[in-house]
Amino acid sequence: MVETHESLQERDSPNLQTNLQGSNTTSHGGASSVDSEGLAVCGAIATGRSDVSYCRCGCGAILRRNSAGKMPLWIKNHWTLPSRSKVEWLHLLADKNSEAPFCKCGCGRKCFTQFKYRKSKINGIKPFYAFLYGHDKRPQGWNLALSKEERQAILGTLLGDCSIGYPNKRSQTPRLATTHGLVQKEWAEHKVSFLARLNMQIETVENKGYGKWSVRFHSSCLPCLLEIESIVRCNGIKRVSREWLDQIGDLGLAWWFCDDGSAGKKGGTVSFHTEGYSEEENELIADWFIDKSGYGACPYANGRGHWFVGLDRDASCWLIRHIRNYVPASMQYKMDAVAKHRAGKYRASHIRSRNRSYPLLFRERDSRP
């Protein structure tokens, strides 16, 4: 059993105060003026006990008699080490820690070794841990910084079918999760491929609701998603804001369209199925489309107490022009119904008022026939 000088000092403090007077030794390691051979004798004198002694390597640890009644001279493996004072050990530790590697989790911190660990590993085998304590359980890419494209894609798909949250109460960082029908498996695989750095895991599972099978995937819980969560959630609830919409870019708009957009076969207009949002949020989305495109958009009631946003022909054509380079082949069918229709006989002049009968725009007749 190995005990430190401090632990024995607490136990035998009355004897220590008496016996340490006039001694040149110091706690845990001794002074450099005391040689390693004398430490064994000084250990017994300093503690007032004959069954304890210092390790002769000079590390400062105190030994006790073993079960056979014999007094060991060294801690295990310390007999191969040169005798050093505690000051020398600390200097050697500092030199070795200057070569400490970075933690493999990617946190950016170094894996410094500790004094008690270094004593037994100084001449030997692997002196440094690969991870800091607990960091070996972190997922790959823990210190990941999102690129501009990844950030836009995430913000866009969160407006659609994706969600962000914590898998359990112990989680400190959020993750992304999405479920699609089997017919959109290629679209789900495209998302997983694009966001591969987030350690996406995808699987096909039996669906107990609409459709027999579902494709679902989720990312790892990562700190880089904390900032995203602060934008899209308010008091734990996903809520659309102007700040959120302004950051999705054309790429995020394309992902939102692929998730929730649909094109009418007659007239070539686009609707966003935002039934999961409140009427006020749908009003905000429609206003944002008006400001971005300069054309018409309006929230409509679906007759079941929910709302969705519809774009007019001009706004729909504006949308297609901006997202066509970001829509994968598996989702081109949503664009075909809009792309084959021209913008129509009317164009938007300017916005004057808004009501349900004439929702957004007064129009003037185009010069085209």
The top-level CATH class of the largest domain is Alpha Beta
Count of β-strands: 15
Which percent range describes the beta-strand content? Answer: 15-25%
Strand order of the largest sheet: 4-5-7-6
Distance between the termini: 99 Å
Tally of domains: 4
Order of secondary-structure elements = EHHHEEHHHEEHEEHEEHHEEHEEHHEE
Record keyword descriptors for this entry.
disordered N terminus; single chain; 13 helices; Endonuclease I-creI; 33% helix; four-stranded antiparallel sheet; 4 domains; 369 residues; elongated
Explain this structure.
The protein is an alpha+beta fold and 369 residues long. The protein contains 13 helices and 15 strands. The chain has helices at 5-11, 13-19, 36-47, 86-97, 115-121, 148-159, 185-194, 226-232, 242-245, 249-260, 279-293, 313-323, 333-339, and strands at residues 2-3, 52-54, 62-64, 163-165, 175-181, 201-206, 213-218, 233-234, 237-238, 261-263, 270-272, 297-301, 307-311, 346-350, 362-365. The strands form 5 sheets. It has a 4-stranded antiparallel β-sheet, covered by helices on one side. Strands 10-11-13-12 form a 4-stranded antiparallel β-sheet. The longest helix has 15 residues, at 279-293. The termini are far apart. Residues 1-48, 117-125 and 342-369 have low confidence and may be disordered.
Please give a quick description of this structure.
With 369 residues, the chain is α+β, with helices and mostly antiparallel strands. It has helices at 5-11, 13-19, 36-47, 86-97, 115-121, 148-159, 185-194, 226-232, 242-245, 249-260, 279-293, 313-323, 333-339, and strands at 2-3, 52-54, 62-64, 163-165, 175-181, 201-206, 213-218, 233-234, 237-238, 261-263, 270-272, 297-301, 307-311, 346-350, 362-365.
